[in-house]
Structures are given as structure tokens and as C-alpha cells.
Amino acid sequence: MIRNGKSIFGSATKVLSQANASRGFVSASVPTVPLLIGGKRVESKATQWIEVINPATQDVVSRVPCVTPEEFNLAVADSKDAFLKWRSAPITTRARVMFKLQELIREHMDELAVSITTEQGKTLGDARGDVFRGLEVVEAACGITSHQMGEVVENVSTGIDTIALRQPLGVTAGICPFNFPAMIPLWMFPVSTACGNSMVLKPSEKDPGAAMMLAEMALEAGLPPGVLNVIHGAHDSVNMICDHKDIKSISFVGADIAGKHIYERGSRNGKRVQCNMGAKNHAVVMADAAPELTVSALTGAAFGAAGQRCMALSTAVMVGDAEHLVEGVKNAASKLKVNAGIESDADIGPVITKASKERINKLIQSGVDQGARLVLDGRNVSVPGYEQGNFVGPTILADVTPDMDCYKEEIFGPVLLVMKSDSLDDAIELVNNNMYGNGTALFTRSGAAARKFQSFIDVGQVGINVPIPVPLPMFSFTGSRGSFLGDTNFYGKSGVNFYTQIKTITSHWRESDIEEGSRAANLEGVGTK
Length: 529
Known about the structure:
By secondary structure, the chain is α/β, with parallel strands linked by helices. The protein is globular, with a radius of gyration of 26 Å.
């Protein structure tokens, strides 16, 4: 195996030409990340390369090629050929591949975690969680024999039966973000290939190592060559995916600008598209909330993974007298250790790029300038031995109002905004007026308040005393409104529906045909001249 801003269009990535590399701008000892086509590693002939940077040290981990059009077309053609055979593989064969894949992921979880921490920066504990949440989707895909069942109705009319089959689409594509280098690829290719499709996967150009390892594990698990091909690049490769006539669907997770572009361009070219995008997730805290549970939940959900989660609780809405809990969150957050993710005592690692750090700090300052109260400032955190790292410590801004830039934009860092509300009704209205609908949570001991909240909140994923209510894969990831584009969500039943199309077959067999078929045909004259 290979051991090596949020938008995929981010300018923070550093593109180098091979000419510059040959002149010594990139050390010859820096490994290059291959493509994976037809079950083999392929060294790209790209003329543009992207550096993968360790966020804690600024060391160059590897170089990623921007796939050439010829290489991309080869990957798609290979996946198309592989699909023609794979779609006819028995469904039990596909299930066995998933069983073996989950076994290999468990076996190599620590290696995957080290790769994620090295390239993405999150702590080893968060990296293992990244892998584990993806592993749960693989485990669910092991049950494809039940999930892909069709339907049948006998005698829809006299002697006429109708069956509905769920059949694979063909070549599918996955475009992944930087923040979950293992989990998001595992949202995509296991479900797609278990349904009988092939896939061309594009990992994030910022941290492709884990996806490459997972793809090679899939091969070892028995996935035929070409059923999963891996290409690399930035916006040009995304446009190739959107435009290629043989790609039938696109799955994307990432930032708003990229998601809207992919949805519009892919849909215009006749593709089925699903896009998980940005978020501004609110925790509504009632005055009767359990103090210890609420403080712990807010601290972990706001600052864990350096806030680089689309389901991070970035905003706390304190209802009535609940504001006194902010001091407890401040005290808990102050004790979190900011360090390189590889260090055993790290609670919070660096953010992905220097540009991300600058953007987060700018939004914090804009909040202060626009009247927010700085309860805890993590902008000047220093990490001995990692002075060049992209570190931002836990930060809390109170007295935030909806017109502030820090509220209107997704910060995507370890920053908690605190807002006030006079009543639960006002809090629900505040959340529903926000453009995003990914996740929300209510902290209360009142069943009546919980029932009202879950009924009237217009957000796709709701937690009651659960800070990050991401559904397990027997359900689906159901972000809504401005957080999602498409008709069908990721994994679970929705995921199977996305990667399959329904074919109905209506057949008519007459009972009289039984008698006619039992009589020998008229053989008079057969064998004579």
C-alpha cells in the first residue's frame, strides 16, 4: 500500500510545473502520488503538480499530479469496460468483497490514521474516528443483498405480473473534500460498487493518501481492476468529471462554490448529482439543560477536529437564563491542548492551510469589530516545536447577531459563536432563517420542548441532547436546504437509490399456453425430402 480554505478550488494549494521541479524547487526525495487505473499504479505524465503539505510542520509530504485529459479518458474508459462485467457479478460476490474490505480497514486502521494526521492535521484520535465512521458505511454495504431488492406484484391484471428491479447506473464519480480523507471516500465507492457500478474517485488534492490506501485495500478485497479507479487534480479534473458523457452520476462533498458549480454543470450534462455543502449548525440551549452534559457537548462539538467538520456546532443559541453556561464552556475549552495531531496529548490539531488560518482569524476580528464580545481568543496560540503550524486555539465570540460576517459565513475553524434568544420559538425562528440546514441540536430536560423543536425546526439532522446527530448508515445523511443540492442523500437507503435506477418489467403469460406447450409440435414432413 501507499504510505505516504475548504473549497476544492482553493488558492492555498501550490501548483508547480515539472520544469520548476527539475530546477530544484521541489526536492527529488519528495514522493509523487500515482494514479490508480485498471488495478495498477500509473505514474502521471502531468505538467502540473500540487504539493501536499503537513499542516503542523509545513513539510512537503508528497506531490499530487493534475491528471491529463488523456489519463482521465483512459480511467473512464477502463471503468466503463470493468462495469460491463462487474454489473453481472452475483450480488453475493459483491457483498463478500465488502466483508473483506471492512476486515482490511480494521487491520490497517492505525496506518490510515497516521496518513490522515500527517496530511490533514487532525489528532490521531480524530483520524481513527474518521476511518471508523467510514467503516460503518462499508459494514452497511455488506448487506447489499437486502438493500438492492426489487419489488413484485402478481396479477396487476389477469395473467399479468409487474416486477421492479434496481439496476446499477454505470460509471459513477466521487469528488472528495479535505476534512475527512477516509470517511467521505467510504461514503461513496463502497455503496456505488456494491450496487454493481464502477467509480472514478477524485480524492482531495490536499490529502489523497488515505483514499489511495483504501482503493488498494478494495483491490486486495477482491474488487476487480477498473471497478475503482483513482485520479487526482483540482478544478480541471472536476470539470472533466462534469463533462464526460460516460459518467452517469457525481457525488460531491465540499464547499458551496464548488458544490453549486458541480451541481449545475453536471446536471446540465444529464448526470445525476448529489452535493453536500456548507453549514452553520446551531445548538439551542434551554435554561433547564443538564449543565455538565451541555458544557461537554458544546466543547467537543465546537472545537473537536479544529472545527473543520460540516456538522460542527459553530453557534450556541442561549435561551433565557442559559447564558451562564458559557463560562463553563470557556473553562473547558481553555484546558484543551493545541498541538500537532501526531502528539499523544493533542486535543486540537492545526487547520488545513495557512490561508484557512488567515481566513478564520479575519472572521474572528470582523466579529469583534462589529460588536461581538471576545470571551476566549485562540488566535495567538503558540506550539513549541511546531512554530510554523497552522494553529488556531479555541475561540468564543459572545453577543453575536445575525448581521455579523462571522455568523453569515461558515468559519470552518475552532470558533464558537454565542447568541441570545428570549424563547424557544424565537430560537427556532433564528435557526430556520439561516440559509443552511445541515444539523442542529437542542439541550433540554423538557420532553415537550424537545417535541416542539424536532417538529418545527427546518433542518435535516436534529439532535436532542446529542451534539453531532450524524445518522448511522442504516439511515442516511439528510442535510437540507442550503447545505444540500440534489434529490437523494448519501448512504443508507438513499445512497442505494442514488446509485441505482429502477426498471419495471410487465409480463403476460396465458394459462392456455400451458396446455398448448404440453402437446408435441406437428412434426409432419420433418426429416423427409
